[in-house]
C-alpha cells in the first residue's frame, strides 16, 4: 500500500454505481477524508444540481466541476468520489489519473435501472433520456479513464470496499 500513500483514491462511474456510499466506507477504512465532488459543488453553490442545471445549464455545472477537480487534485491522501459525467472532460481525466489511483465502479444497466428507479434528483434522466443510452455513451470514457474496474452489480458496499482494498494492496 506504500505506492498509494501520497496519492488520492478516485472513484468514477455512472450514477447509481455506489460511488458515494463506497467512498464513505473506503475513506473510513483508510482513515482518509472523503470529498464528493457533486456535494462540494452543491455546498458552495447553495442549490441542488438539478436546480443548477435548470437555472444555469449543464455547461455551467461542468465548469464548476472542472474547477473543483483541479483544486482537489492539488491535495493528497483523499478519497474523491466524482460525479458520473466528470470523465467526459479530458482535462479532468488527466488530472485525476495523475493525482491518484482511478477506480471505475461499474454495474449492469439492469442493476442501475433498479437502483435509480425512484430517484427524481438526477437531472440528466429527467428529460426522458434513457439510462441505457446515457450509459452506452459514457462506458468507453469510464474504461479509458480508469486504472482499475470493480463491478458492483449485486454486491453490498462493504463487499465492493473489500475488492478495492485488495486492489490497493496489489498496487
Q: Using the coordinates shown, work out and report the CATH topology.
A: Rossmann fold
Mean pLDDT figure: 90
Strand tally is: 5
Architecture per CATH nomenclature, i.e. the level-2 architecture: 3-Layer(aba) Sandwich
What structural class results from the helix and strand content? alpha/beta
Distance between the termini: 6 Å
- CATH superfamily grouping: P-loop containing nucleotide triphosphate hydrolases
User: How many domains would you count in the coordinates?
Assistant: 1
Regarding quaternary structure, what we see is single chain
**Unreliable runs:** none
Tell me roughly what share of residues is in helical segments: 55-70%
Largest sheet: 5 strands, parallel
- The CATH class label is Alpha Beta
How much of the sequence lies in strands comes to 5-15%
Order of helices and strands: EHEHHHEHEHHHEH
Taking strands numbered 1, 2, ... along the chain, how are they ordered across the largest sheet? 2-3-1-4-5
Number of H- or I-type helical stretches: 9
Amino acid at each position: 500500500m506504500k505506492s498509494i500513500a501520497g496519492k488520492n483514491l478516485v472513484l468514477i462511474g455512472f450514477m447509481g454505481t455506489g460511488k458515494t456510499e463506497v467512498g464513505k466506507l473506503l475513506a473510513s477504512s483508510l482513515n482518509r477524508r472523503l470529498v464528493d465532488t457533486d456535494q462540494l459543488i452543491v455546498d458552495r453553490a447553495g442549490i441542488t444540481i438539478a436546480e443548477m442545471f435548470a437555472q444555469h445549464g449543464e455547461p455551467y455545472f461542468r465548469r464548476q466541476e472542472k474547477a473543483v477537480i483541479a483544486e482537489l487534485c492539488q491535495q493528497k491522501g483523499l478519497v474523491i468520489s466524482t460525479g458520473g459525467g466528470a470523465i467526459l472532460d479530458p482535462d479532468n481525466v488527466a488530472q485525476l489519473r495523475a493525482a491518484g489511483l482511478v477506480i471505475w465502479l461499474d454495474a449492469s444497466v439492469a442493476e442501475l435501472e433498479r437502483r435509480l428507479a425512484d430517484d427524481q434528483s438526477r437531472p440528466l434522466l429527467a428529460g426522458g433520456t434513457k439510462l441505457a443510452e446515457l450509459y452506452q455513451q459514457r462506458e468507453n470514457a469510464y474504461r479509458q479513464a480508469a486504472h482499475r474496474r470493480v463491478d458492483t452489480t449485486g454486491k453490498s458496499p462493504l463487499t465492493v470496499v473489500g475488492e478495492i482494498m485488495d486492489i490497493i494492496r496489489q498496487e
